[in-house]
Amino acid sequence: MYKKCLMTLLMMNMTFLLTWFCIEEVKINNTAARQAIYMEFQSMEEERHSFLEASANVSSGQRVVDYEILAHEKKYKLSEQDYDTLLRIVEAEAGGEDEDGKLLVANVVLNRVNSEMFPDTVTEVVMQKGDGVAQFTPTVDGRFQNVKISEETYEAVERALYGEDISQGALYFCARNRADSSRMRWFDQKLTKLFAYGNHEFFL
């Protein structure tokens, strides 16, 4: 009888211990599973955040604006008066030319601004006279004052202000078929012809 009770007690203790071990193992497994799930969720959240951040950087307007500022900063920053003068002289001198023809006239004006041989502002360059003769005929025959600026002229001037220069450094231009013979002779004898484009010849 005593042995039977002892065996029963021993079996109960073993059952209790086995039950306790099973419960602890379940707790450990649950804790590990929760930690694994949390880590996986955290990793997914980090990846999602990184993806959204990268997407925002690529597609945001600010990123586009920053890129445009870096890639397309104006080389020339003109006063309002100089900008208006440049538009008017380009229209007056090259109104019948294509956009590149207009760009070339703008280039010549800006080349003069950059040259030590000429004044330092667009307006002074355009209005300059040598021996009483206007450097740009439209400033004295009324065309400069009365032009209507075309969209193509705006585009050409913007290209020039952003630094596009196709003039090969030209400082002079003329339309041979409209110039008087003495003036044309001066161009041919005193200057170096670079090229012709449209109705104009360009010189250095």
Structural account:
The structure is a single chain. This protein has 204 residues and is mainly alpha-helical. Helix content is 66%, strand content 8%. The protein contains 9 helices and 5 strands, in the order αααααββαααβαββ. The strands form 2 sheets. It has a 3-stranded antiparallel β-sheet, sandwiched between helices. Strands 1-2 form a two-stranded antiparallel ribbon. A hairpin with a 2-residue loop joins strand 4 and strand 5 (200-203). Helix 3 crosses helix 4. The longest helix has 58 residues, at 2-59. The chain is elongated, with a radius of gyration of 41 Å.
H-E order: HHHHHEEHHHEHEE
Secondary structure class reads mainly alpha
Query: Count of DSSP E strands?
Result: 5
User: Roughly what percent helix?
Assistant: 55-70%
Major sheet summary line: 3 strands, antiparallel
Strand content: 5-15%
Low-confidence stretches: 54-71
Question: How many angstroms separate the termini?
Answer: 128 Å
Q: What is the helix tally? A: 9
Strand order of the largest sheet: 3-5-4
- What best-fitting shape do the alpha-carbon axes yield? elongated
Radius of gyration over C-alpha positions, nearest whole angstrom: 41 Å
Average pLDDT value?
Answer: 80
